[in-house]
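cache lookup: miss for this entity combination. No prior model stored, computing from scratch. Input as submitted by user K.M.:
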Amino acid sequence: MKTRRETASEATTHRLSLLLRSLRVVENEGIRTISSQELARRFGLNSAQIRKDLALFGEFGVRGVGYRVPDLKARLLTLMGLDRTRPVVIVGAGNLGQAMADSRNFNGDSFRVVALFDVDGRKIGGKTRSGVPILDASQIGIEVPRLGAEIGVVAVPAEAAARTVDALARAGVKAMLSFAPTPIVPPPGVTVKTVDLTLFLESLSFQLG
Amino acid sequence: MKTRRETASEATTHRLSLLLRSLRVVENEGIRTISSQELARRFGLNSAQIRKDLALFGEFGVRGVGYRVPDLKARLLTLMGLDRTRPVVIVGAGNLGQAMADSRNFNGDSFRVVALFDVDGRKIGGKTRSGVPILDASQIGIEVPRLGAEIGVVAVPAEAAARTVDALARAGVKAMLSFAPTPIVPPPGVTVKTVDLTLFLESLSFQLG
């Protein structure tokens, strides 16, 4: 049987992320309760959709009061598995890999980059600006389990992407984000999301005409 | 009146990009004609959807033969505005900006990075590894029109994102890609697509449970 989490669509997940972000903003403003209508108005969301998405996961709102901001935020964090820090490893210590290793996006309450991997002997043994160690990519099978990494980021050239995904999967990583401009067929039980920058550029080009 | 291009949804644009990529693959294999069914089978697309998307823009297929690969590819390139090279500028010469400036994604037949901009005096006047010049961000209003840049990439910290978008818009850039982890309200007539890496990570976390 699939869990609710597994049946939630990609689009639902995306909306829950945006909702969480909106809650962080209003919490920082000291607001304690908010209606779905007010959230919708302020953040360009759809109030009926908010209620529908949250209904998938239980009762969140209080009739006539709206949502209690700290409660809803805490429950969303738990629901999304963001209530603890997941160790992340990045394969490929080029500019892109190092940018992510040192980025606030990848180093907050819910994620922390614990290592970079590369095949370049001049990089191995070094550290990024923020101190993330660069390890030998041939040691992924040993280091990833030791570090307890749960998420792998693939920032290698296209031709190395498939074997990087395989190496991470064999080391037990079940969720990956790939920046390689090539389609990836993930092993069974592994999720790979691809960030395809070319698609973004092509879409902009299309709109420019 | 809106053009067909303006009425094509984001999802359509995305599918046309994927179709174009599939055509490049089969063309490289020397295949001259292909049916929508075969494209669908090989690349995990939907054959009825392919026919429907292409029908928005005119007659492409030949009954009983399928699509002529070079013709369809050429027409898609023209349709998407990818049949010429668009100059791209990147604001923010950190690791991320430099990674993109030197990336194959951003330097092909359809796009070329012509300059980076930064506020850091130690970077201004330098070049990236592949030779892209790093210019003074205060000169965006002069340099962007001179370079004829059509697309701007925003790779600055969140707090500098809004003023970067404004500076690029004032310099005539109508299409931007932002990596800043903050919502952007684009000026009228300007399209800003945001690549929000936190959303990707949160989605992976959600699936891990």
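stored under new cache key. The longest strand of chain B covers residues 111-118.
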